[in-house]
Every structure is written in C-alpha cells, then in structure tokens.
Amino acid sequence: MSPEEPCLRSGQVAERAGVNLQTLRYYERRGLIAEPRRSPGGHRAYPPGTVALLTVIKAAQRLGFTLDEIAALIGAGRRGHPTAGLRVQARAKIDEIDARIADLATVRESLSQVVAAGCDSLTGCTGPGCPLPAAALADAMY
Predict the structure, then answer these.
(1) Pair (14, 79) in one structural domain
(2) Which of 59, 83, 107 is the last residue of a domain?
(3) Rounded distance, CA 123 to CA 134, Å?
(4) Are 79 and 17 members of one domain?
(5) What is the pLDDT of residues 78-97, one digit of tens each?
(6) Which domain holds residue 77?
(7) Would you say residue 2 lies in a domain?
(8) What are the pLDDT digits (tens) for 116-128?
(9) What is the pLDDT of residues 12-71, one digit of tens each?
(10) Number of domains observed in the structure of the chain
C-alpha cells in the first residue's frame, strides 16, 4: 500500500463490509485479513481492498464454507497459483448439503407420522401407528 492510497479505519471497514469490530479483529487474528499498518496516532489503517475481501469471506460463509476452508482458499489465491480448490470444495459442500437434505427429509417424514398418529406425548403416546417407541421408553424410565 502506498502512502498516498486512502486508508480506512476499523469502524469504516466494519460498517462498509457489514461486520462488527469484533469480527474484524477476529479475522485479523485468524489471518483471513492482513494486519493493517498503523497511523501515526496508532489507529489501524486498512487498505480499501479489505472491504471487498470481507465481503468475499461473508459470502463464502453463507455458502457453507468454514473459516478454515475460507482461509485455505484465500491462501491459495494469494499464492497466485491456479487451483481447482474452490471447485473441489464446492463439490464437497454440495455433497454435504445433499446428505443434510436427505436427513431432513427423513426427519420430516417421521414428524409427519407423529402428527398423523395423533401423538401427544413423547413418553406416553400409545396410539395406533405411533412411530415413537413410547411404551419401551416409558418402561425404561419408570
């Protein structure tokens, strides 16, 4: 960053990127964003590109990437070597999402069976077709 390039203070960066100051500091500690230089008064002086980087980090989090995964992807980008890392990670996320969707569909079906059976008690439902093992659970508890 050149001395004439405009710098942003912590509050400006946080506001423009839509994060709070604690998040900004945390990302610094994690190495997701570079530690900024200090102004003569001791204030953090961030380059304007920091806002864009934070926006990318937040977008990646919304897509389900963890901060560790984001750090690895950012690191690969900083090294300037083309990599299939993002595509590979995105495919893995799609597989994770598909598995979660399947799990949620199973849970939804089970809950629909509970509603259809008229179950009113987790431990005492004995209605016909109740999908909950209430009788066995009740015996084990008492």
Answers:
(1) yes
(2) 83
(3) 5
(4) yes
(5) 666 666 778 898 999 999 99
(6) 10-83
(7) no
(8) 888 777 776 766 6
(9) 999 999 999 999 999 999 999 999 999 888 889 999 899 999 999 999 999 999 999 999
(10) 2
Helix-helix angle 49-62:21-30, to 10 degrees: 90
Q: Which residues contact 30 (CB under 8 A, 6 or more apart)?
A: 67, 71
Amino acid at 72: A
Please report where in the chains the tokens 């937040």 appear, as a residue: 58
Tokens describing residue 58: 């937040």
In sequence order, what DSSP letters do the residues of the chain get, joined into one string? --TTS--B-HHHHHHHHT--HHHHHHHHHHTSSPPPEE-TTS-EEB-THHHHHHHHHHHHHHTT--HHHHHHHHHHHHHT---SHHHHHHHHHHHHHHHHHHHHHHHHHHHHHHHHHT---TTT---TT--S-HHHHHHHH-
Name the pLDDT band for 138 (thresholds 50, 70, 90).
low
